[in-house]
Design a protein that fits this description.
2,3-Dihydroxybiphenyl 1,2-Dioxygenase, domain 1, 8-stranded mixed sheet, alpha+beta, 19% helix
Length: 288
């Protein structure tokens, strides 16, 4: 099995939402993503205002929240280029009265948790320098401790916001995806055995973290919704699919070959990307 190269990244997420305008007020007007275009019930956004889109919103009017105890999205994690940029978002969200759900120091990163208006989970985070990450027995050490929120916000005292700064730093990107799954071993066989991600941490109860190129994780998988959890209903908000950019055409061709050999059915979109579903029915787009 060939491991994915270090250039691998989560490029885009596609989210189903119940009210497109409400979602744009959150992702565009509050978080600061820039709208690239909008169509009939869809909108595409990126931090830089340039393609490719990082978040695509698809409206299903009246979509209900994903029920507890189902597989699918746990959170989409938006990686900021530094602590100050994370602090800017935290202060703006707090000023707007948006509810937070958690503040954590993971050792490798500092993170803030919340949900959008449809209950789609989000993590906003900034990495610590990779040279400071602790590794033990071949794994990246991660933990969950209280975030020094006061220390984080002090970044803005040292470097106040300027009037011409964009709401969101243009280098912000999708850092990782975390999913509820029904069976960790089955999901590991898919994401590690077939796609080529490497396991980076097995120390969290009921969870598994995988990455390419030595990153702490591009994917989080957990069975916290319950072993054997069913998929969410089709009329629920949530993750439609996410895009994994795997490096080059040769790597992509090898991944597609492995998927076919294991009985999966990746479908070409005719433009160089391949679509497949994981064992829980979550959509994945594979591209270069």
């Amino acid at each position: 099995m060939g491991a994915l190269p270090a250039s691998t990244a989560i490029r885009q997420v596609r989210l189903r939402v119940g009210d497109l305008q409400r979602s744009l007020r959150f992702y565009r007007d509050l978080l600061g993503f820039r709208q690239l275009h909008a169509g009939a019930g869809t909108a595409a956004l990126s931090a830089s205002g340039r393609t490719p889109a990082q978040i695509v919103l698809e409206e299903r009017p009246g979509a209900r929240r994903k029920p507890p105890g189902t597989t699918g999205l746990y959170h989409v994690a938006i990686l900021l280029p530094g602590r100050r940029e994370l602090a800017r978002l935290v202060r703006r969200l707090a000023a707007a009265g948006w509810p937070f759900e958690g503040f954590s120091d993971h050792g490798v990163s500092e993170a803030v948790y919340l949900s959008d208006g449809d209950g789609n989970g989000l993590e906003l985070y900034a990495d610590r320098p990779r040279t400071s990450w602790e590794r033990r027995d071949g794994e990246v050490v991660m933990f969950t401790r209280p975030l020094d929120l006061e220390g984080l916000l002090e970044e803005l005292a040292r470097a106040p916001e300027g009037p011409a700064e964009p709401l969101l730093h243009p280098a912000a990107r999708i850092g990782h995806i975390h999913l509820h799954v029904a069976d960790l071993a089955r999901s590991e066989a898919f994401y590690r055995g077939l796609l080529g991600f490497e396991v980076t941490n097995r120390r969290y109860p009921g969870a598994l973290f995988l990455a390419a190129g030595g990153y702490h994780h591009h994917l989080g998988l957990n069975i916290w919704a319950g072993p054997g959890a069913p998929p969410p209903p089709q009329d629920a908000a949530g993750l439609v699919d996410f895009t994994v950019a795997v490096g080059d055409g040769a790597v992509l061709a090898e991944v597609v070959r492995r998927l076919r050999g294991a009985g999966h059915d990746p479908r070409s979109d005719g433009e160089g990307a391949w679509r497949v579903t994981d064992p829980d029915g979550t959509g994945i787009v594979l591209t270069v």
